[in-house]
Amino acid sequence: MAKIEDFSSQDMSNTAWAFATLGVVNVPLMSAIASAASTSISAFRSQDFGNTAWAFAKLGIADLPLFTAISAAVIPKMKEFPPQNLTNLAWAVATLSIVDKPLMHAIAAAALRKLSEFNSQHLAHIFWSFAVLGVLDKPLFDATSAEAIKKIYEFKAQELSNIAWACAKLGYVNKPLLQALASAALTRMSEFVPQDFANISWSFAKIGFVDAPLMHALAAAAITKIHDFNPQDLANTAWAVANLRMRDSTLMDSISAQARSKLTHFEGSDFSTTAWAFSVLGEEHKTLLDAISTEAIKKIDSLGAQQLGTLVDLGLPCQGDIEAQLQKTVSRFLVSMPSNLEGFQKGWYQGLVSDFEVDNFGSKGDRFLLDTLGIFEGPQTFTKKGAQLVIEYQQQHAESWWRSEGLLHNRVVSYAELDLTPPGHGATSIAGARYQQNGYQGSRLVSDKILPTQLPFNHNVDRSLCSEFQLLTGVCQDLLQCQTGDVVRFLAQVQGWLRLFVTGAPCLSCVGAMRQFQLLLPRVTFEVSIGPELQYAALE
Q: Domain map of the chain by residue range?
């Protein structure tokens, strides 16, 4: 190491590459290489950049000064990089969770020019790397999808499952690509390892891509290797089956048996995901659910807020202990909940949701949160009526379950009854009932008074399209149709009541919208009832 400063750029990258290939972590050596490389980075060639970044990522060494120097040096030269070096660089920063948007944009621009030269590994690395970092570059993904479809039968099993996972992670829906992945997966099924089964199943179910022949083939093949599934593989496979309402008792029995034998290795979402799947399908696996309940209590401190919320809603024997833990978490959340509109306008609520890393607290957790905010449940007669009406509404709009043939769209419907009187002599009241379905309905309601919140687990989902957000925003817009003065003061003088029924636990963006509505219209009695999720059996 005394002579490391005398190494050429190729010497340094080759040395780092060799140690990484052997899996030897020599921290003093790698630190010396990082230091020397940072000062001589201008001499690096594209291969040196790619190999050095790959080596540090392979060894799990996130040397930020080195990667900052690499980023600054490569961006002007990126168009010269061949596919291998481009994708090595992308893979490295993704593996080390280094968020460098200028670098990723430069990689995307360079990749677009050379996609025809990419092989299956290069294409899979692009999908996977951008998904890990949460960067959805639609032009890149569209072009990469088109290239992947041309070469789909060249992809290995892991590459297929990684692409499917990337699409699900980012919420990227490209039907021709999904169809190609399904077709290729059928030909590679014998090569699948447990993670491939779990990733493909989970990803297609998450996206809502319904391919019955593929799912049944995956189920049959998975059973033969189920003994090798780890807890996460078991949980994700069970979740996929349940999410698509697929009836396969043989597979679920096999998952149940393996889960019981490996429960001591379960952590966090393994408990909540598995328990949810068996509960939703109504499978008779009381022994498994009781065992999950017992083990979850032992590891209660490892459960995140969302996992706690899911378990509480299932009514397992552990409900009392889990609910007490959930209420402690929600109470901590409430301490920082904005007490005025400024907290939403300045992004304080957005930061709060991000810090807690939760999309929702489950139905009971959300109920506790809303009650504490003074947004109470509506009368039982209203709740019962709303539950029936939203089912009838969705039955009348059954075609909306599908984006297109084979692509399921999970639906949320909100129903409201209201009687609101604006201030001013002769003002026209807004009264009656209204429905609102989630998703884009030909127009988008926007407001600078009620703001949506980006969520941590599904951060690419446009929360302004949630049914609760659209309904409450629509009510405000109706009230303000002819108002040109101080709108906040105007809304503060509106009187009356509004009762809202929602299907499933509201996400924290919608909880935020409810809180903003409450703050905007303090003279309005505002009540929210939470009902069960709407269900559609796609594979029955």
A: 192-335, 342-531
Which pair of structure tokens corresponds to residue 31? Answer: 């630190």
Neighbours of 216 (CB within 10 A): 14
Q: In one letter, which amino acid is 424?
A: G
Which pLDDT band, with edges at 50, 70 and 90, does 540 fall under? low
Q: What is the DSSP string of 40-90?
A: SGGG--HHHHHHHHHHHHHTT---HHHHHHHHHHHGGGGGG--HHHHHHHH
Three-state DSSP string of 392-425: HHHHHCHHHHEEECCEECCCCEEEEEEEEECCCC
* Residues 6+ away with beta carbon under 8 Å from 5: 36
The secondary structure element, H or E, covering residue 418 is: strand 413-421
The number of angstroms, rounded, from the C-alpha of 26 to the middle of its chain's C-alpha atoms is: 36
Could you give the 3-state DSSP secondary structure of residue 137?
coil
Q: Report residue 304 as tokens.
A: 């995140």
- The answer to whether the CB of 171 falls within 8 A of the CB of 141 is no
According to DSSP, the residues that pair with 408 across neighbouring strands are 402
Kindly state the DSSP code that residue 135 receives in the 8-state scheme.
-
SS3 433: strand
Distance CA(404)–CA(408), nearest Å, equals: 8
pLDDT tens digit string along 25-42? Answer: 999 999 999 999 988 898
- Residue whose pair of structure tokens reads 């809502």 in the numeric block: 208
By three-state DSSP, how is residue 440 classified?
A: coil
Which one-letter amino acid corresponds to residue 431?
A: A
Tokens 């009541």 appear where?
Answer: 497
Give burial (CB, 10 Å; 0-12/13-18/19+) of 176.
Answer: exposed
Chain mean position to CA 248: 26
Contact at 8 Å (CB) between 199 and 157? no
Asked whether the beta carbons of 528 and 515 are under 8 A apart, the reply is no
Q: How many CB atoms lie within 10 A of CB 340?
A: 10
Looking at the chain, the number of H-run helices and the number of E-run strands are 25, 6
Q: Which of 226, 217, 319 is nearest to 539 (CA)?
A: 217
Q: What is the sign of the dihedral through the CA atoms of 269, 451, 410 and 327?
A: positive
CA-based nearest residue to 438, from 471, 472, 413: 413
Read off the amino acid at residue 225. Answer: K
Question: With a threshold of 0.85, does the pTM exceed it?
Answer: yes
> For 430-437, what is the mean pLDDT?
95
What tokens were used for 430?
């807004």
Lowest mean pLDDT among 164-173, 273-282, 317-326, 479-488: 479-488
Cα–Cα nearest to 446, from 464, 466, 426: 464
Residues written for the chain: 540
460: amino acid identity, one letter: N
* pLDDT value at 403 more than 80: no
The torsion angle over the Cα atoms of residues 249, 254, 255 and 256, rounded to 10 degrees, is 80
How far is the CA of 230 from the CAs of 5, 34, 196, in angstroms? 45, 36, 12
Contact 468, 452 (CB under 8 A): no
> What confidence category does residue 488 fall into, taking pLDDT thresholds of 50, 70 and 90?
very high
Helical axes 319-335 vs 305-314, angle rounded to 10° = 140
